[in-house]
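Per your request, structure below.
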């Protein structure tokens, strides 16, 4: 990465870190660019060189998390219902609990659910449009998101392995 791109990445990351620090304390929809640049120590011009709005900064953070998700996943062609795939998800979100909870506390949970669903679609393809089974992936993503969020909010007392096993037990009709 050239020096200019590396410098822009550092600026973006500093701004995103500042954004996360506001989570739970201030509604991100009411957050100003001035507050962000003051907290991050980044110049106003640097903010606007990289982002048009606070919403674009939020999107940047979501894209970075999705990128890390896919990079860590590798080239696995596992079915999204496989024990290995579900365990990876719980481990990934445990490692990123602070970020996930920041999005949740900032009331952008729907955006995060969209990211989780999009990650599943990108990894496994969308369901056939002509079939009622097209809804399965969306059901699975929503169920996973809600269970994962509850687990994170409750302090992750159970390990990712236990959560993956329980999730699959529930998804497989409680068997």
């Amino acid at each position: 990465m050239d020096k200019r791109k590396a410098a822009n990445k550092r600026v973006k990351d500093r701004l995103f870190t500042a954004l996360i620090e506001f989570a739970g304390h201030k509604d991100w929809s009411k957050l100003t660019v001035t507050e962000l640049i003051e907290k991050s120590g980044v110049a106003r011009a640097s903010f606007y060189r990289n982002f048009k709005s606070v919403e674009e900064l939020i999107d940047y953070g979501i894209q970075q998390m999705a990128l890390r998700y896919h990079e860590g996943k590798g080239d696995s062609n596992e079915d999204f219902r496989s024990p290995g795939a579900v365990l990876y998800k719980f481990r990934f979100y445990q490692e990123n609990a602070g970020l996930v909870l920041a999005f949740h506390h900032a009331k952008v949970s729907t955006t995060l659910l969209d990211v989780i669903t999009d990650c599943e679609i990108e990894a496994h393809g969308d369901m056939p449009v002509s079939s009622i089974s097209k809804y399965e992936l969306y059901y699975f993503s929503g169920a996973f998101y809600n269970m994962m969020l509850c687990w994170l909010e409750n302090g992750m007392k159970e390990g990712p392995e236990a959560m993956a096993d329980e999730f699959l037990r529930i998804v497989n009709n409680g068997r």
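Residues 54-175 form one domain.

Regards,
D.
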